[in-house]
Records
---
Amino acid sequence: MVDVPSITGVQSRIGSMLREQGGLGAIVIDLVSLIEIERRFGTEAYLTVRQHIQPLLDDLRGRLRDEDVLAVDAREGDRFVFFLSAARSPRGNLAMKDLKGLARRMEDSLQPKVFRVAHPYGRERPAVDVGYAFVLYSPLASEERQIAQLIEEARRTAELSRVLRERQERERLLQIIFNRTLWTAFQPIVEIESRRVMGHEALSRGPRASELEPPLVLFDAASRHGLVAELERACRRRIFQDWADFGAPGRLFLNTVPSTIRDPSFRGRGMIDMLGESLSPRLITLEITEREVIENIGLYREAMHSFLEMGFSFAIDDLGAGYSGLETLVTLGASYLKIDMGLVRDVHLKRINQQVVRAIAEMGAAVGATVIAEGIQTGEEAETLFDLGVHYGQGYFFGRPIEADVSS
């Protein structure tokens, strides 16, 4: 790992490059959005992320010329600047397209890597803004001022790039939603003892082989652009169509949000038309996560009353992931309680997890709700869960998500 000097520490070297070349190009890598990690999780978490990002910068530095200089803007500790030696074209002429292309390649390289490093501290993709600029040398102005101007122009270019990227992402989302270029995978939910399949959970995905294919990325992007309701609506229609093609017997579980109750297309006659003749509401269970239930308790009760009248049932998803009162949740009237995979993982080795799972199973039995454990990956987990009173499970141990057209 190479220590990155401050701009003031290499000021004289950068000034010499500016004078000797008659101009200077720079690429700014702006990672200032990472400061949000420090605000939310503390300095230690922030430093851990920074430590993992440093090798990424070292790798970029290794791809450039030895004469190029990498420095950090001391005013913004997460803003890095590459000062580039000489023109980048074979003829030695200045070609702005080469400078722009280098900036875009750096951005494309860093975006997914920084996301993987920062992902444990938040689902939202951290911003990696990369900009470029060029300044002509002037003997009438101080070198320090010209270098500051260069950095500021590169920063502005990075901001423009981010705005354009966000606009392009919104346009992609609008296109996906309008064309319904989504697809659905169905994961089996089984009776643990007999392995009999009692239903499937529908898992929506974005366009294949695109950066928006993973559901977390897809819905996070929709949230940023205020398109969650529209995406939800498109996913529901796609799910019902794919479920009809899938042709499996049993119950369909699908994730939704409490605000669904406000959607006219998902209630009354509009909902029945969406389902078609082959799919009955009595075979559909709507899953709402524990966090969303607690944040929208009044809306959740309203949603249940309206949809129960149409024949739907409800499940509380990710139960045990938060810190809410479990007793309050299980007495809300949900027909299914789905235990969060965090409690399921290595449950055979964790006594505290076993106690919580047993409590959920007992409360579920008391209110007549079916308890389902999510994310089961091993036989040991399945056996322990069954001994604790959980009779239904879901996870890779029983079956991976399957596409509708694979089974036909």
Note: The longest strand covers residues 183-191.
---
Amino acid sequence: MGEAVKRVGFIGLGDIGLPMARRIVTGGYETVVCGHRRREPVEEMKRLGAREVKTAREVAQATEAVIVMVQNDKQAEEVIFGADGLLQGVKAGDGILLMGTFSPAFCKRVAVAAGPKKVEVFDAPVVGARMGAEAGTLGISVGGDKPGLERYRPVLERLGKITYCGPLGMGQIVKLVNNMAAVINGRVAYEAIAWGMRNGASEEMLVNHLKNGSGNSFIIQNWEWLKSYFKYPPPPTYYVGGKDLRYALEIAHEIDQPCPIAALVCELQKTGPPRLPEPPQS
């Protein structure tokens, strides 16, 4: 199984990735990062004690396990398979933890490429949003070799609670189930509350009532957080929901599983967030 990991690389310091990375470096791990588009998260990590290098290859060379928390397969392709990607720097006995939401097929492709190098690959996407990342209470669905997971368990448990889901790729399947439900529920909740507001009810009263009713959900319980994703113009993270639905629908097509509601919401996501009515003037 090998000794517990002490040196951790982190790639993807975004909305959820940055608070995750903070928990790694403040948990006593020697942490190595590299920049992508924005300097602010890198500078914050350096203030907390992380070391910056220039490329993903150098991140892998300096660490025993690398967390990849970028947004999609395309970004992960560059980080892992690029000329200065992780696969150019990993060493026998290292681990790659795919914690962004990627297609299961992509995760398996990474494992095939890493296998000859004797590098372990796990898919370990997260649920719980930014507040879960900050609190260390994320849900982490893990796919991969179960005995091999034990070496990385302390790192992952610094971030949240692990659910072992089965072979590589199954962690992403479980995550996509969550995101299908969450993205669809977000649209439904907005539609229902908008209808109530158009009929004269206040947003605050509707949300508080739903929190105690059968229409309750994670979305309702965290309504103010959700609204930050549904503003105009929406943050880039808003469109991640549509990407996740597309991954799910591609798999649905392959296995001939009808998902008509997911397909509808996926199309609606392309048009941007729904809008709530303006409150009536007093």
Note: The beta strands are 7-11, 30-34, 51-53, 65-68, 95-98, 120-123, 126-127, 138-143, 160-166.
